[in-house]
Amino acid sequence: MIRATSGSGLIVTYMCSNTSIATLVNGKIHIVGAGTASITASQSGNSNYNPAVDIIQTLTVTIGTAISEVEAPDAQCYPNPVHGILFLKRAHTQVAFMSMVDISGRIVLVKQLLNELESIDVSNLKPGSYILKFIDGSFVYTNKVIVQ
After folding, report:
1. Domains (ranges, CATH) in the chain?
2. What string of pLDDT tens digits covers the 148 residues of the chain?
3. Using only C-alpha atoms, what is the Rg of the chain?
4. For FRET with 130, which of 6, 28, 145, 148 sits at 20 to 30 Å CA-CA?
5. Number of continuous H segments (helices) and E segments (strands) in the chain
6. Please, are residues 4 and 12 in contact by the beta-carbon 8 Å criterion?
7. Which pTM does this prediction carry?
């Protein structure tokens, strides 16, 4: 979720410079391809406040060429096969990001992980095989997930 605050109370809007890399929907960044894009936060002024200076952040998305699975006894992904909600349980609570990649290598889902148990809504994904991947602490966890 993209969040910016404003002391004036005026609305902050967001724009992505390259919609073939990412789109912005309801304050969330949706990764759609590999490459680089700029995410710009803007706030127009009104009769009481001048416009704020735009804040620009660079987003770089890369797709790996190989996937190597790591057996991680302190991480679990269930149920598998899944229809609807997938649960990801991990021993660490440090912030991490997970992604799901389809068989063509396209990232179809990205989520920030904050808790030991996370629920991941996969109901919008087409049935098929996906690779779930996240870095947690010192290991990379990958798992094949079947969406029904």
Report:
1. 13-61 (no CATH), 75-147 (2.60.40.3080)
2. 667 777 888 888 889 999 888 888 877 888 888 889 999 989 998 999 999 999 899 998 887 644 444 455 578 899 999 999 999 988 776 778 889 999 888 899 999 888 889 999 999 999 999 999 887 666 678 889 999 9
3. 18
4. 28
5. 0, 12
6. yes
7. 0.52
